[in-house]
Design a protein that fits this description.
The complex is a heterotrimer of chains A (305), B (671) and C (231). Chain A has 305 residues and is α+β, with helices and mostly antiparallel strands. Chain A is built from 6 helices and 13 strands. Chain A has helices at residues 6-20, 36-69, 87-114, 228-238, 247-254, 272-277; strands at 128-135, 138-143, 148-151, 153-157, 162-168, 173-177, 181-186, 192-196, 202-208, 221-226, 244-245, 263-265, 267-268. Chain C folds into 2 domains: 8-42, no CATH class; 47-229, Up-down Bundle (Four Helix Bundle (Hemerythrin (Met), subunit A)). Helix content of chain C is 72%, strand content 0%. Chain C has helices at residues 10-18, 47-76, 86-89, 92-117, 121-151, 160-193, 197-229. The chains are: A alpha+beta (305), B mainly alpha (671), C mainly alpha (231). The interface between A and C is small, with 7 and 7 residues.
Chain lengths: 305, 671, 231
């Protein structure tokens, strides 16, 4: 299912273009998937839309046709002032939505299992491990196998699955790279799983899809899908190049700030992610306590952004 | 002495809230002064503020809902225009701490203080009339419920001027809403305002359930009730089942914030996800609480303007109850993306889409109600047709969001925003406007101006689609909701189109207001002397417009479905009204100030809790309890309306009906 | 009703043709309708039925609220954050006495209503007073339990489990306290106003409320205390 035939994806894209008459083009959206998960999600979205349109369009037409046909001024239409029951119509009326929903129910059932974000992707190569921590208001990506970490910048090898483990140091966020597909919550005290894959080397972007406070609007991060060779080179270059991500550096990073430029860490504390997720490290602090005269109005730490 | 409250709570440095509050305060002051100068207070106190008449309370609910709808719409205008200005490097005019309050206030106000009161207005006004009885089961509690909702609404609006409102989104997910991340009073305002109004809503819910189940006129068996009563019953059953969950959830968050407890904190083992589960266990039924009565309103309008009974009455009842039950089993679809696992997602995905069976059946039944009819496209019917179109599309996108893999792409996106506006505006708001046009003559005794009504419909309908279609597209392009500024310049065109849509919608609102003004000025030509302006079918049209305070001089004796239609047919066939009944004295409940009294102290309590002024809070509670004891001591609860008075009012109605009968043809030529 | 007897007019004939099954038009319900029960055939129910029924619905909603606190306790039961577990804070002996007080108060409450129905003011007051005293004893014991725990540093601020525990038990305690206030008010009203119709209604509601609190307590006793003491 994840290695969907290309024809199917093309069809999906064509249908998407057709049905939405995209304002400003569809590129960069969820209907322009860059990986198997996104393609699977988008195909289900589009298939379900067309299944329902097959019922919905005739229903709307029927509604307006009947309303017009039986308008008060049309004396040719027969007036049936008591007609309010027909067993046959009732049977049809109940079975149309029931059948549609049974059909969609199958789609839901199969789709939920096949595209479960926790389910590893079938692939010849083992997945890359990435630990994701959402902070106020930036993303920390830890590469335990490579021993490096980065902020607001995600680099993944193209054509190879990536296994994300996600948690939050403070409040809820949602990890979402629209063109790669499924989004999943990052939540404090919990670790959620997500498997994604980018098919080609490409520049993508990701964001948080759950409002998390004043700096939320800038919780975007760049995503680079690069060939495996470049990925290895990037990791080797990063290793030892930046400051270490130890507890002190993390404590500094965890304070509220927004719109951080991407930055790297040359080494990592291998237990950091689990310490954050399990609450061994205290949650990231909120806004600094205000002095006198605050009177209940919160102030944004760093102005507008 | 005053807890956290001091002068810095007033936003002297922020022009938007300051100017708004000053204007609101001046307007309120103006109304107060006018009422005092004109000497209206005794009348207002006697006829409205202390009234326990379900019709008066219904009208006050309507007024409250309308005012809050305008407030929420003002928020919407600010959000859409700001976002269009803050795209691709633009600054916009609202800093995050203000913008975040606005979208929180927009959601909270529209759902809880706009849509809820409006829906409750219809239920309050119509249910006793349609059931052929004189009032709801507990008239005094009805007044308490209304005034509590009003004091909650007041608390929300006070936050504009004193302090701030929550900046968390309309459902304040912890840990963001906990003290650690929201130390200000915003969330506290939210908690107390929603808690107070929620208790008011619960009281009304209990009241209407009891009314429908235990107070129906003779012969009004369950399957003879108008569909609106069925939907009101289903909606209020959901209120009774779901609002306590909200009360409990908000109480837990309150304990977390005030006493450092750990229900939902991200420390000491608290479980923020429990909040999400609990709040949606209320939140999802809540949307059906709103939408079921809307369905009921359309189910009254389609038969009336098609000149024939509702098609598939029993199907309609079954579908209503089906939705009522299943709506309690779908809450998890609001967070498929929290990683509950495939099996759980499958269950909730299917249970959510199954609701579409119930709504689908309803839509077909409305369509077939028109079949074989004589459809008159009066203004209520326009809204109903607009609803059918809008709601079908909203239902389609709703089922899409109920499919977990599709939701993985669209959760929390502008697609979602477009979807729920599609169903809530398309169903609830359209129903409110349809119902307003339909029952206005019953409530106030004159019709609304049809021309302006049509203009309002077309502007609102067009404006709605121009506003929200781009949002669907933006959602599919990956735009999430609640962005204070938008970093992707490609999304600018969609946001601009949406602003145009909001402008058209604003014209629709203006047309609605003009319609009201024009209609009031021409009320003599628009007067409804018959009490039955639309050739209605249910019992509210049997009484005068506006109905006497006791609704029916003699309780109707129902002999079939569509009670009033039967009475009317008999009168038409025999060319005379039924024989004049023997008028008897009527017992009616006395006015009671307990509602406004309780609400006043609840407001004081809520406000002082927000600002940690403990002594005032305690004093308010003591005063409220003392008040209850005093009111409970009252000896007389009812007064008797003498038979002559009843007879005088009812004879006037019968004269009007007789005059109408003389004007009508004996039988329609078609039969 | 309408569907007995022959069609009386052209109108009825047409109706029969267009709506053959008469669905939703037929009379139904019990063969002999009970007046005042509110079953639809005979008009609105009696005031007493309406009041009792409405109060039942309120109680159901109150039980839904308790259910949320039960659920929260169940979810947070293991979240001790390094603090004491539920088994370590339960003193079954005291809770046994609390339970005895409350169950007995329900019994005396029932007796008071029997006296009320017999319009016996003295015995109504005596049993109401007993109910109130037993309720007071319950609240006092519970307060003592809470204070003992607090003295050992076991407070709701310590862990989420304790939050859930104090929240659930405390909510019930608040209900009993409010019930006590209500009871005192009712006793004063009965004394001064006698058994008027609205007094009867209020006493009925109070009885329902008090018994409902007992049922909730049995749930708390089982789920919070007994399960904690179980190995």
């Amino acid at each position: 299912m994840h290695h969907r035939p290309a024809r199917r994806t093309r069809l999906a894209r064509a249908l998407a273009g057709l049905s939405l008459a995209c304002v400003g083009g569809c590129s960069g959206g969820v209907l322009d998937p860059a990986g198997p998960v996104g393609a699977g999600d988008a195909a289900i979205l589009i298939n379900a839309t067309f299944i329902m349109l097959a019922i919905v369009v005739p229903t709307i037409l029927l509604a307006f046709w009947i309303a017009w046909r039986y308008r008060a001024s049309n004396t040719k239409a027969k007036y049936l002032p008591h007609w309010s029951y027909s067993g046959r119509i009732e049977a049809v009326v109940w079975s149309i939505p029931t059948l549609t929903i049974m059909f969609l129910g199958g789609l839901i059932w199969i789709g939920s299992y096949q595209l479960d974000p926790f389910r590893p992707l079938p692939s010849k190569s083992p997945p890359v491990e990435v630990q994701v921590v959402s902070l106020d208001w930036k993303w920390l990506f830890i590469y335990p196998e490579q021993g490096v970490a980065s902020v607001n910048q995600l680099v993944v090898p193209a054509g190879r699955p990536v296994h994300f483990s996600l948690t939050s140091a403070s409040v809820f966020n949602v990890f979402f790279v629209p063109r790669l597909g499924s989004m999943v919550y990052a939540m404090p005290g919990m670790v959620s799983q997500l498997h994604l894959q980018a098919d080609k080397p490409e520049r993508l972007w990701g964001t948080s899809a759950q409002f998390s406070g004043d700096g939320f609007s800038d919780m975007q991060f760049e995503v680079q899908s690069v060939p495996q060779r470049d990925f290895d080179a990037w990791a080797a270059r990063a290793r030892g190049a930046g400051p270490p991500l130890d507890r002190a550096a993390y404590a500094e990073l965890a304070r509220q700030s927004a719109n951080l430029a991407p930055r790297g860490y040359g080494s990592i504390d291998p237990h950091l992610f689990h310490a954050i997720a399990m609450g061994a490290i205290a949650p990231a602090p909120g806004p600094a306590p205000e002095g006198q005269g605050h009177a209940g109005r919160e102030k944004t730490p760093e102005g507008r952004r | 002495m005053f807890g956290k409250l001091d002068w810095s709570a007033v936003p002297f440095s922020q022009p938007i809230p300051l100017i708004t509050s000053v204007v609101i305060l001046l307007a309120m002051l103006g109304v107060l002064v006018l009422a005092t100068v004109k000497g209206w207070w005794p009348y207002l106190w006697r006829e409205w503020i202390t009234s326990v008449d379900h019709k008066r309370i219904g009208v006050m609910y309507g007024l409250l809902g309308t005012l809050m709808l305008i407030r929420g719409f003002a928020d919407a205008i600010m959000m859409r225009t700001h976002q269009a200005m803050a795209v691709g490097g633009g600054e916009g005019y609202l800093p995050p701490e203000h913008y975040n309050q606005i979208f929180t206030a927009h959601g909270t106000i529209m759902i809880l203080f706009g849509a809820m009161p409006l829906v409750l207005a219809f239920m309050n006004y119509l249910v006793p009339l349609q059931l052929g009885v004189r009032d709801v089961a507990f008239p005094t509690f009805n007044s308490v419920g209304f005034w509590l909702t009003a004091s909650g609404a007041l608390l929300v609006n006070v936050s504009l001027f004193v302090g701030e409102f929550a900046r968390t989104g309309w459902l304040p997910y912890p840990p963001l809403s906990e003290n650690a991340y929201s130390p200000g009073v915003g969330v506290d305002y939210y908690l107390w305002a929603v808690q107070i109004s929620g208790i008011g809503t619960l009281i009304t819910g209990i009241n209407i359930v009891t009314t429908v189940l235990k107070m129906r006129c003779p012969g009004m068996s369950y399957l003879r009730m108008p569909i609106f009563c069925w939907t009101a019953l289903a909606s209020c059953l959901l209120i009774v089942a779901a609002f306590p969950i909200l009360t409990a959830t908000l109480a837990m968050l309150t304990l977390d914030r005030y006493l450092d407890w750990h229900y939902f904190t991200n420390t000491a083992g608290g479980n923020p996800m429990m909040f999400v589960n609990l709040v949606w266990a209320w939140g999802h039924p809540e949307v059906y609480i709103l939408v079921l009565p809307a369905f009921g309103i359309f189910s009254e309008i389609f038969p009336t303007f098609s000149g024939k009974p509702l098609f598939g009455y029993r199907s309609m009842v079954a579908a209503t109850l089906f939705i009522c039950v299943v709506s309690m089993l779908v809450w998890l679809h609001h967070f498929f993306t929290m990683g509950a696992g495939a099996a759980v997602n499958t269950f909730f995905g299917i249970s959510s889409s199954i609701i579409a069976v119930g709504t689908g059946v309803k839509i077909y039944n409305w369509i077939f109600t028109m079949y074989g009819g004589r459809v008159r496209f009066e203004v209520p019917m326009l809204w109903s047709m607009g609803f059918i179109f809008t709601f079908i599309i909203g239902g389609l996108t709703g089922v899409l969001l109920a499919i977990p893999p599709a939701d993985f792409l669209t959760h929390n996106s502008m697609f979602l925003v477009a979807h729920f506006h599609n169903v809530i505006v398309g169903a609830v708001v359209f129903a409110v406007f349809a119902g307003l046009e339909f029952w206005f003559p019953k409530v106030f005794g004159f019709r609304l101006h049809a021309g302006w009504g049509k203009a309002a419909f077309w502007l609102a309908f067009t404006g709605f689609w121009v506003t929200f279609t781009p949002l669907y597209v933006l959602g599919l392009q990956g735009m999430t909701r609640r962005l204070q500024h938008v970093n992707v310049p490609d999304w600018a065109p969609g946001l601009y189109v949406s602003v145009v849509g909001v402008a058209i919608l604003a014209l629709g609102v203006a047309a609605q207001i003009i319609q009201l003004v024009v209609s009031i000025r021409h009320r003599d030509t628009l007067r409804d002397v018959t009490g039955d302006p639309w050739d209605g079918r249910s019992l509210e049209w049997a009484t005068a417009s506006p109905p006497p305070f006791f609704n029916f001089a003699v309780m109707p004796d129902v002999e079939g479905e569509e009670a009033y239609w039967d009475i009317k047919r008999r009168a038409l066939e025999s060319q005379q009204l039924g024989p004049e009944p023997d008028y008897a004295p009527i017992e009616m409940p006395l006015n009671s100030p307990v509602g406004i009294y309780t609400a006043f102290f609840t407001f004081v309590f809520g406000f002082s809790m927000v600002w940690h002024i403990w002594w005032v809070a305690v004093a308010a509670l003591v005063a409220a309890f003392a008040g209850f004891v005093v009111f409970a001591w009252r000896d007389a609860h009812e007064h008797e309306v003498p038979a002559e008075e009843v007879a005088r009012l009812d004879r006037a109605r019968r004269e009007a009906r007789t005059a109408l009968l003389a004007r009508l043809p004996r039988e329609e030529s078609a039969s | 009703m309408t569907d007995t007897g022959l069609p009386a007019s052209l109108e009825a004939l047409r109706r029969l043709r267009e709506d053959p099954h008469r669905l939703g038009h037929r009379a139904h319900g019990p063969a002999a309708p009970v007046p005042g029960a509110g079953h639809g055939e005979t008009g609105p129910a009696r005031k007493r039925v309406i009041v009792g029924y409405g109060f039942w619905i309120f109680l159901l909603s109150d039980i839904v609220m308790f259910a949320c606190f039960f659920a929260a306790f169940a979810v947070l039961r293991g979240a001790t954050a390094g603090g004491p577990t539920i088994a370590q804070i339960v003193d079954l002996k005291r809770v046994g006495w609390e339970t005895a007080c409350l169950l007995l108060s329900s019994y005396t409450c029932g007796l008071s209503f029997a006296a009320t129905n017999a319009r016996n003011k003295l015995w109504t007051q005596v049993f109401l007073l007993l109910t109130g005293l037993l309720g007071l004893a319950f609240v006092a014991l519970e307060l003592q339990e809470f204070l003992d725990l607090a003295a050992r540093g076991i407070t709701p601020q310590r862990s989420a489990m304790l939050t859930g525990f104090f929240g659930l038990v405390g909510l019930h305690g608040v209900h009993v306290t409010i019930g006590g206030l209500w009871l005192a008010t009712m006793m004063a009203q009965v004394q001064f106003k006698g058994f008027r119709q609205e007094m009867m209604h209020r006493l009925l509601c109070f009885n329902l409320f008090w018994h409902a609190l007992d049922i909730v307590w049995i749930g708390i006793f089982t789920i919070v205390y007994l399960l904690a003491a179980a190995p």
